[in-house]
Amino acid sequence: MWRIQTGRRIDARPLIHDGTIYIGSQDRYLYALDALTGERRWRYDAGSSIAADAAFANGLVLAADLGGRIHAVSADTGARKWRTSPSSRIWGRVSTDGSRVFAANEDGKVMAVSLSDGSPLWSFQAGNAVYGGVVLEGGSALFTSYDGWVYSLDAATGSAQWKAELLWGSNSTKAVGDLVIVGSWDRVFALDARTGRLEWNFWTGGATRSVAAAGDALIFGSDDGYVYSVSLEDGSLSWRYEIGHAISSTPAVSEGLVYVGARDGVVHALAAASGSPVWTFGTGDDVNAPIAVHDGIVYVGSDGGSLYALAAGFPDGYTSAAVEQPARMEFQPLSPDEMRARLREVFASNAEVLGETAVFSGDGKTVYERDSSDLVVEVFENGYYLLTGRSIQDDGWEAVYLTRSDYDQLADELGDPGLKSFVGWCCIRVDSGLRLIMRGDEPQNAATATTAHEAGHALQRLLNPVQSKSYSRDSLIGAMGEAQAYTFEVALIRKIGEYAGVETFKWPDGYRWDGYLAQWREGLRASVDDLTQEHDRGRLMMWQAVLRDPQLAHLREELERSGHVSADSMLDMYYRFVNLTPSEIEPYIESISGDVLSDDLNFIFGSINRRVNFGGIEFADLTLNVPTLVISP
């Protein structure tokens, strides 16, 4: 329809009011343009580049510049009514509630000034830069800082209402109903707007700087080159479309179409219901600015300083292709008898998951490659479903087994040769979700437990990604990560045992256990002072949580009554651990640690010794090769 050229790149979203577009440019001007023709009505010299979205109230256009000033300009004439004193650069949106104007700067200062004269009303100091500005919702001022927290302030007073730990920064914050949506480095988070509690998260393959709402869907682009549509209710994926270039531009959704720009210089129009491409328009420059749609016109700013007005809507004669949604297959677990049969296969020998089988005949020896990974995964997958009520496909990940050489090669390719010392690890990000990597030279019975252990890590990453981002080896947070994985491992294998009628918590009396327990006791002692012993420290924390966490008091009662903790109660412990924020982990560990370690050890080993084989164990290898099942609460 038309195009106008400013002096430098456009980063701001066009503001349309009463037939006029107001748009700032990095050439330091705020422009007022006729929305139909692009004819300039006035321009205002802010004295510094403008990158922030403007706002409108009481006949005033409110804009901020990279000199750190907020400007109030007459919408009719472009005459300045007031401006604030300089501060550090303001990159994010300007917001207003009709009496106050809100902005945030690169020094982390969030401010409210009077709409009438720009006089300061209150300010709040965050721990680092605030690049996305302030979002107003229900009397709250919401923003995300690069100090790693999402904040909610009382918009009238600036007093803090809550803050939620994100661990890393974001310039994408949006309020949608009762949710605060935050796009970050590889996730989109949905937080409860009243409490800051994490409701769900969606994992992308790159940074997300752009989120738009459309009914019950959220639409956003990512640096991984995809546009996504997910459910606002639970974050489940509806569709995704590959553009192939990083996307920073915030999409706009109107009349059944999604409009989004990318760093290929192209504006893409996609069907909102399916993600199917409808039309494209090439600007010749990267498009990073948010897109606006108004009265049948799409307004797009580019890095080359151009503002485009394009005709919105579907082309004449366009017929959308029918989109077939794949039928969701309900997971059907094995029967208890079928599970017992699989356990006989898995635990009847120490055969490796990937190995060789020799067959002798009159013609000599023939060696066959053996792969029992499908059997191990089947047992694990059924246990996962029985424990959580979801399939691993529902949660978006898979388990794979590699030969030792391929396993080591992958560790080298990832630049982490230390992984070679592990029998498995979590995880690699793939299109379908997370991929658990296990060594195939492990016995089938032990591999089942290893898979369950790594599943505990994987599920933690899905449920509390902020906590997973804080993980570091040889630390208390690392020990908590191992406590979580062991807890889930034990819960899953015990659930299989409960379902199939197989004991998984007793232990056979004999020299192997005497030596193992003596060595483990010393490991527990060492783990208190040696943070490199995070696996033993994690096992110790499981017991101490049963002993002293008031939220898990029912686990101690169960342990003292029956001699062990059931699968569902172990899962309660897992969720208790997973729900901790990074800043809560060390105080939590301190709260459950006893004053005298020997008292805890006496309780632990007294409980274990009461599990001496008094009724027989059908699958002895189940305990001999998976000792964590027996030494856990």
Task: Give a description of the structure.
- There is one protein chain.
- The chain is built from 15 helices and 37 strands.
- The chain is of the alpha+beta class and 633 residues long.
- Among the domains are: 111 residues, Lipocalin (Beta Barrel); 296 residues, no CATH class.
- A four-stranded antiparallel beta sheet has the order 1-32-31-30, with no helix packed on it. A four-stranded antiparallel beta sheet has the order 2-3-4-5, with no helix packed on it. Strands 6-7-8-9 form a four-stranded antiparallel beta sheet, with no helix packed on it.
- Strand 2 and strand 3 form a beta hairpin.
What is the topology?
Elements: E1 2-5, E2 15-17, E3 20-24, E4 29-34, E5 40-45, E6 55-57, E7 60-64, E8 70-74, E9 80-83, E10 95-96, E11 100-104, E12 109-114, E13 120-125, E14 135-137, E15 140-144, E16 149-154, E17 160-165, E18 172-176, E19 179-183, E20 187-192, E21 198-203, E22 210-214, E23 217-221, E24 226-231, E25 237-242, E26 252-254, E27 257-261, E28 266-271, E29 277-282, E30 292-294, E31 297-301, E32 306-311, H1 336-347, E33 354-361, E34 364-371, H2 373-388, H3 392-395, E35 397-402, H4 404-413, E36 424-430, E37 433-439, H5 444-463, H6 465-469, H7 476-500, H8 511-527, H9 534-548, H10 553-562, H11 567-578, H12 582-592, H13 597-609, H14 620-624, H15 628-631
Parallel strand pairs: 35-37
Antiparallel strand pairs: 1-32, 2-3, 3-4, 4-5, 6-7, 7-8, 8-9, 10-11, 11-12, 12-13, 14-15, 15-16, 16-17, 18-19, 19-20, 20-21, 22-23, 23-24, 24-25, 26-27, 27-28, 28-29, 30-31, 31-32, 33-34, 36-37
